[in-house]
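Hey, resending since the last one bounced:
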Amino acid sequence: MGIVKISDLMHDNLRDASDALSRSINAQAEHWLRVGMLSELHPELTYGDICQLMLRGARTGAAELSFVKPEAATAASVTARKAIRKAAR
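The structure tokens again:
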């Protein structure tokens, strides 16, 4: 664990988001870090796809989502889109 310096504005944003989403400031920061990391690793995924990827990782006990193969993420994205289309019918 280490210390990360952030701007006062970012800290204020974290505080507001953590209050709104019932998370600690550290949990909110970690969430944003994970989403940002996964967005960079898998630019083809939407925010919803990334959330589903994180939920699956939590259910299966996958500690490190950074090692998810892009093919698996793409398959998850396709599966998610199919489910959304099916539910919309």
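The mean pLDDT is 82.

Sorry for the duplicate.
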